[in-house]
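Subject: design request, 310 residues
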């Protein structure tokens, strides 16, 4: 399997009942991530083991709150084994609301700890005014809209091999990408795919089973680059959405804005589809743990050639 990553992904959906008005603000993913991180932090152990130890793969707090690593080649912060999929930012008391968390690799086995954290965060209150909620249920969801299964892995992601000539990507939450040190403020399929493969390589290395070596990932990036470059952007219904994320612990504010809307490309895009399907499962770009980079795909297969006599 040429697209093997060694990754497994599951999406856990939480349905809640608001006891107070809940206001997640202009950046719902950030509010959810902050509340869940605080709840998980209370479970932090006193173990001083290094990040690569087996301890960290089995301790919910240490795994989900993976810290900085000066030796990490792409900045100090390690990619976390989860993402957040936020929904309605404001809910009135008495109404139900929901969100989901995508768990990656070893985080899947820690779903009970995640559910406990959701219950604790909801009881404490989330967002502006600390609106309280109660968890009604937690269920496994399909990580990709058309997957038809609750687990995404290499076999399921690459199951579809039909040729694709038109691809629409919906940017459900802000997509924040950089290229050569500058923000990418309009749809750029080449940069998107390159950053996605970089993210998949990092997740595979940290959380995958028998991850492919760096040389394989370099070859993959080289192979998809001309495909993405050859795609024609024929429809752009995107805009830039400014958003900010504040940290109570550090007192800092971080920009989390990006591209939202949808864009459509035409070309021989078949080779990109397995990677983009992974992107729909694990997000693309910066701030994935705060909900950014959540995409959805709509691909149109190329028309099969007509047979003679028809």
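Subject: RE: design request

Done. Sequence follows.
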């Amino acid at each position: 399997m040429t697209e093997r990553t060694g990754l497994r992904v599951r999406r856990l959906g939480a349905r809640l009942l608001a006891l107070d008005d809940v206001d997640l603000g202009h950046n719902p993913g950030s509010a959810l991530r902050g509340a869940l991180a605080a709840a998980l932090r209370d479970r932090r152990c006193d173990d001083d083991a290094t990040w690569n130890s087996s301890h960290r793969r089995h301790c919910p707090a240490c795994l989900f709150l993976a810290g900085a690593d000066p030796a990490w080649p792409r900045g100090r912060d390690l990619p976390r084994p989860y993402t957040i999929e936020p929904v309605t930012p404001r809910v009135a008391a008495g109404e139900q609301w929901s969100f989901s968390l995508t768990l990656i690799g070893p985080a899947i086995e820690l779903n009970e700890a995640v559910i406990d954290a959701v219950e604790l965060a909801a009881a404490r209150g989330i967002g502006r005014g600390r609106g309280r909620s109660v968890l009604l249920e937690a269920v496994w969801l399909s990580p990709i809209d058309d997957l038809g299964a609750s687990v995404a892995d290499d076999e399921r992601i690459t199951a579809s091999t039909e040729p694709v000539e038109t691809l629409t990507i919906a940017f459900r939450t802000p997509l924040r990408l950089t290229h050569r040190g500058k923000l990418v403020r309009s749809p750029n399929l080449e940069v998107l795919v390159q950053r996605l493969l970089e993210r998949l390589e990092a997740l595979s290395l940290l959380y995958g089973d028998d991850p492919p070596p760096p040389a394989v990932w370099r070859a993959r990036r080289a192979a998809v680059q001309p495909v993405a470059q050859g795609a024609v952007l024929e429809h752009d219904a995107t805009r830039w959405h400014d958003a900010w994320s504040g940290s109570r612990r550090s007192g800092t504010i971080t920009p989390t804005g990006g591209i939202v809307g949808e864009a459509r490309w035409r070309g021989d895009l078949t080779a990109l589809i397995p990677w983009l399907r992974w992107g729909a499962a694990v997000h693309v770009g910066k701030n994935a743990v705060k909900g950014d980079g959540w995409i959805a795909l709509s691909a149109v297969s190329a028309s099969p050639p007509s047979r003679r006599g028809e």
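The chain has eight helices and 15 strands.
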